[in-house]
Design brief:
This protein is an alpha/beta fold. About 40% of the residues lie in helices and about 20% in strands. The chain has 16 helices and 14 strands.
């Protein structure tokens, strides 16, 4: 049970009404599911939802999103429940937000604003703080005029963490200057990341992706004994964690865990987190973790797949890892799920169920992705033979009259490098002897 009056020195949790504007004919169950998630986001941000309403419209009202009658109903609810804010499940334009605040006389936020607020609270590293601040400033920039009109009664609490409190009193020129500086800073950080990745060259990279709170960090910890932060809440971790992992055959790979996805993820965040998400876009293999015990697991899979497409990782080979199998009920149809998602694997990261099977699957997938090439190397180039023994897997070797014939298997991360370095030695097939 949440406290409305917390310990001495802490503010009471704010109260909010949740609002959704949906197209006519939308399934009410879907509307409630989206509002459930919005309520969870708000809870993570530090506020409680006390009421929820939605309206079906062909399109949102350009001035207030809702129709006039619904706005009046919303005002009555604001006064009845004495809430501090109203939160919409979809993006609001600056004009809509301004008009609604003038009528309701409380803070009006949209889902994007709440997610940005959560990110501002959870950002720990310099990189994450920089990324979040840039995303917030890009979100706030078109809203600066509205914010200036409220200087006499600035709101606090959810939706005002990070730069919102300081940038509210700056002009657009200073705002542009700050955003430019943050982009430059992120470019420098990206340069450092590129250098770090080049130093890790030679090991296949595997990225853990998935919906927020699906158990990605738990899986990383279970597989690598990594001391990573794990908590049952949305966006518990924002920074990328990379750890070395030994597969059953002894081969080492790099396993990374990064920020989770969510439906309607603010585009400002996707853009500013590009250096963090590069661990995903440059990976040879993705482990897509899904909370199989969640009532809307299939929808969450679709959201992650769409997000991967949007950041350019949609074609990367992927293993669907169905986590929390220990939490599903007897009514769960495993056979039906496997039929819909061939090649998926059911695990429990927290209890260690099927982790060895997952590693074997990763091993097999990487082998499947490897490239096989045949080479004929003259005897006077033995140094290149020695190099190949260190960098690739030798499948077959024949010492012939013409030189050393090798059949090699190249891991996905080394294909371009090996082909460029040993191009002159490649042949179609090994000679028959």
């Amino acid at each position: 049970m949440k406290n409305t009056l917390t310990d001495v020195g802490l503010k009471p949790r704010e109260k909010a009404i949740l609002v959704s504007v949906v197209r006519k004919g939308t399934d009410p169950a879907i509307v409630q599911e989206h509002l459930d998630e919005l309520a969870l986001l708000l809870d993570t941000a530090g506020a409680d939802s006390v009421m929820r309403i939605y309206q079906e419209r062909q399109r949102p009202n350009v001035a207030t999103a809702l129709g006039k009658g619904k706005v009046e109903e919303l005002l009555a609810l604001v006064e009845e429940f004495k809430v501090e804010m109203v939160v919409f499940d979809d993006d609001l334009t600056p004009v809509q937000t301004k008009n609604l605040e003038e009528v309701l006389l409380v803070k009006v936020l949209d889902r994007c604003g709440v997610i940005l607020d959560i990110f501002a609270s959870h950002a720990m590293s310099v990189e994450a703080k920089t990324q979040v601040e840039l995303a917030q400033l890009e979100y706030l920039f078109p809203r600066l005029t509205r914010m200036w009109t409220h200087l006499s009664k600035q709101f606090g609490g959810v939706g005002t963490k990070g730069p919102g409190e300081t940038q509210i009193e700056t002009d657009r020129r200073m705002n542009r200057s700050r955003m430019s500086m943050l982009r430059t800073k992120l470019d420098e950080i990206e340069g450092q990341r590129v250098l770090q990745r080049s130093n890790r060259k030679g090991l296949p990279r595997i990225a853990i992706v998935g919906y927020t709170n699906a158990g990605k960090s738990s899986l990383l910890r279970a597989l690598t004994d990594a001391n990573v932060y794990v908590e049952d809440k949305l966006f518990a971790t924002l920074d990328t964690t990379v750890r070395s992992l030994a597969l059953p055959n002894g081969r080492k790979v790099l396993l990374s865990d990064t920020v989770g996805f969510i439906r309607k993820l603010p585009p400002q965040l996707v853009a500013s987190f590009r250096s963090t998400l590069s661990e995903t876009t440059e990976a040879e293999l993705l482990l897509h973790v899904v909370d199989i015990s969640h009532a809307h697991a299939r929808d969450q899979i679709d959201v992650v797949v769409a997000t991967l497409d949007s950041i350019g990782a949609g074609e990367t080979p992927t293993i669907l890892v169905c986590n929390k199998i220990d939490a599903v009920g007897t009514e769960f149809d495993i056979d039906g799920f496997e039929m819909d998602y061939p090649g998926c694997i059911f695990i429990s990261a927290s209890r260690g169920i099927n982790l060895e099977k997952l590693l074997a699957l990763v091993e097999a997938k990487l082998a499947e992705l490897s490239t096989v090439k045949n080479l004929l190397i003259p005897y006077d180039s033995m140094k290149d033979v020695n190099t190949l023994y260190k960098e690739v897997e030798i499948i077959e070797r024949v010492d012939s009259d013409n030189g050393i014939e090798l059949c090699i298997k190249i891991s996905p991360d080394k294909v371009e490098e090996i082909i460029a370095k040993f191009q002159q030695y490649f042949t179609e097939t090994l000679q028959e002897h």
